[in-house]
C-alpha cells in the first residue's frame, strides 16, 4: 500500500483515494492497475500509477496532478489562453513539471525562447519516463530548463523580459505556497513586457471562491486587467479548475484576455478552440457578481 508523507493511506483495496482537507466532505477515486513509482523527493511525496481507465497518473502529496486521459483540457487551456491573447516571442513557465504546458507553448511558431523553471527535478524525470507523450518537448532547442525556485527566479529577473508568464502550480500548500502571494505578482508584472500576459492555475470556483476573489483584487492590483477563466478537468476536485489571467498595461489592442488575437493554424489540438477560449470566461452568476464587485475595487486601487 502506498502512503503519503502524513501516513494516511493513498491506495485502498486497489483504488487511489484523493481525500484532502482542502476539499472537505468529498473525495475522488481512480482504480489502480499498477504502482509505477513512489518516492519522497526533496519537496514532496511523488506517486505515479497506471490506472485502469485514465492511463498513467501523477500524484503529488496525495493530490492528482495529471492523468493521460484528460490532461489535454488543462494543459491546452492554461497554455493557449495566454498564448493566443498576444504575440509572444519570449515565454516563462514556472512549475508544470510534467511538461504538458511546455508541450503546448512550443507549438506556437512565434516563440523564440521558453525559460522553464521547475522546483522539483524528480517530477520532470518521472514525467519523461512514465508520460512521454506529455513531456515530449522537454528537450526542445527553444527551451531552457532551470531546476529551482520560480519565486526567486522572478525576483532576480530583469524588467520587461517576457511576453507571457504561465504558472502551472499545485495547490497553495507546500512547494507552491509562495506562488500564491501579492509579492510574487508584483515581480511578475515587473518582468513582463508592456502588454504582456500572466496566466496561473487559479483553483476551483466551487471550493476556492474567497481565494479567487483575492487573486483578482489583490494579486491583480498592479495589472491593467485581472480575470478568471474556467476549465473542465474531470479528475480534479469538483471537475473544474481555473486560470487566473492578468495583462500588464502598455500594450496595443484589447486589454481583456477574453478573446483570442490569433487563430490556431495547423496546430495539433484536442481541447482548445477559439470558441472554448471565449466560453471559458462565462462564469456562474454567483462568481460573476462577486468578481465584478472585486474588479471594481481593483480598478479603483490601480487608478490611485
TrEMBL record:
Source taxonomy: Eukaryota, Sar, Alveolata, Dinophyceae, Suessiales
GO cellular component, one term: cytosol
Gene3D superfamilies tied to this protein: Spermidine synthase, tetramerisation domain (2.30.140.10), Vaccinia Virus protein VP39 (3.40.50.150)
PANTHER family, per the entry: SPERMIDINE SYNTHASE, SPERMIDINE/SPERMINE SYNTHASE
Biological process per Gene Ontology, one example term: spermidine biosynthetic process
Catalytic residues (UniProt): 168
Name the record gives this protein: Spermidine synthase 2
Family from the record: Belongs to the spermidine/spermine synthase family.
GO MF assignments: spermidine synthase activity
Keywords tagged on the record: Polyamine biosynthesis, Transferase
Species of provenance: Cladocopium goreaui
Chain ranges of the PABS domain: 13-248
Domain of life from the UniProt record: Eukaryota
CDD domains named among the record's database cross-references: AdoMet_MTases
Amino acid at each position: 500500500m502506498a502512503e503519503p508523507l502524513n501516513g494516511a493511506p493513498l491506495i485502498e483495496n486497489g483504488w487511489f483515494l484523493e481525500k484532502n482537507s482542502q476539499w472537505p466532505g468529498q473525495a475522488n477515486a481512480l482504480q489502480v492497475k499498477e504502482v509505477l513509482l513512489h518516492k519522497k523527493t526533496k519537496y514532496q511525496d511523488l506517486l505515479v500509477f497506471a490506472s485502469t481507465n485514465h492511463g498513467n497518473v501523477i500524484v503529488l502529496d496525495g493530490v492528482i496532478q495529471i492523468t493521460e486521459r484528460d490532461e489535454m483540457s488543462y494543459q491546452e487551456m492554461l497554455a493557449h489562453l495566454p498564448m493566443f491573447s498576444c504575440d509572444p516571442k519570449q515565454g516563462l513557465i514556472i512549475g508544470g513539471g510534467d511538461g504538458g504546458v511546455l508541450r503546448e507553448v512550443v507549438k506556437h511558431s512565434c516563440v523564440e525562447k521558453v525559460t522553464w523553471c521547475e522546483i522539483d527535478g524528480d517530477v520532470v524525470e518521472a514525467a519523461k519516463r512514465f508520460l512521454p507523450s506529455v513531456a515530449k518537448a522537454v528537450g526542445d532547442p527553444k527551451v531552457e530548463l532551470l531546476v529551482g525556485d520560480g519565486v526567486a527566479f522572478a525576483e532576480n529577473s530583469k524588467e520587461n523580459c517576457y511576453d507571457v508568464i504561465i504558472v502551472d502550480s499545485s495547490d497553495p500548500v507546500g512547494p507552491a505556497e509562495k506562488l500564491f502571494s501579492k509579492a510574487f505578482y508584483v515581480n511578475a508584472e515587473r518582468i513582463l513586457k508592456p502588454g504582456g500576459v500572466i496566466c496561473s492555475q487559479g483553483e476551483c470556483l466551487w471550493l476556492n471562491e474567497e481565494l479567487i476573489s483575492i487573486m483578482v483584487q489583490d494579486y491583480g492590483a498592479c495589472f491593467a486587467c485581472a480575470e478568471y477563466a474556467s476549465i473542465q478537468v474531470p479528475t480534479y476536485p469538483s471537475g473544474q479548475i481555473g486560470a487566473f489571467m492578468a495583462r500588464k498595461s502598455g500594450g496595443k489592442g484589447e486589454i481583456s484576455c477574453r478573446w483570442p488575437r490569433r487563430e490556431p493554424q495547423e496546430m495539433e489540438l484536442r481541447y482548445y478552440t477559439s470558441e472554448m477560449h471565449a466560453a471559458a470566461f462565462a462564469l456562474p452568476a454567483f462568481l460573476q457578481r462577486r468578481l465584478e464587485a472585486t474588479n471594481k475595487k481593483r480598478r479603483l486601487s490601480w487608478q490611485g
